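ARCHIVE CARD
Drawer: 12
Card no.: 0347
Subject: one protein chain, sequence and derived structure
Cross-reference: see card 0346
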Amino acid sequence: MHFHPVPDAPEDARFVRGETESAEWGGVDLFVELGASDQVSQAQHEFIGQVLQALDEHLAKANDLLTKQLGASGQQPSLTFREPPYWDVLFGECSAEGCREAGVLVEFEGAMPRAVVTLDDAESL
């Protein structure tokens, strides 16, 4: 997978961007937070590969958690990977109250979705 710098990333964070395909969702943007080396680590490459092999399953789990907690599903997913096993799915669109403007984030630890964070109140993050 090829990654490109993210020129508009916050000053205190370094990210690279890629894209993947999902059978259910089409093109999905993918971001990787870089560590001190400014490169995607071997561990991150391996972990990203594992997640992408079951991407549709993970996105379905994220949507199931949204439905249970907010009563709505998300659209326009993008992925952000941190140090394994932590990563997030950002749904750019969600019809639930509290996430209409900025979307909703589902935090994962490995294959398990752990939390839903609505982003309309970005200052709370």
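Annotation on reverse: The two ends are 30 Å apart (CA to CA). The first strand starts at residue 4 and ends at 5.
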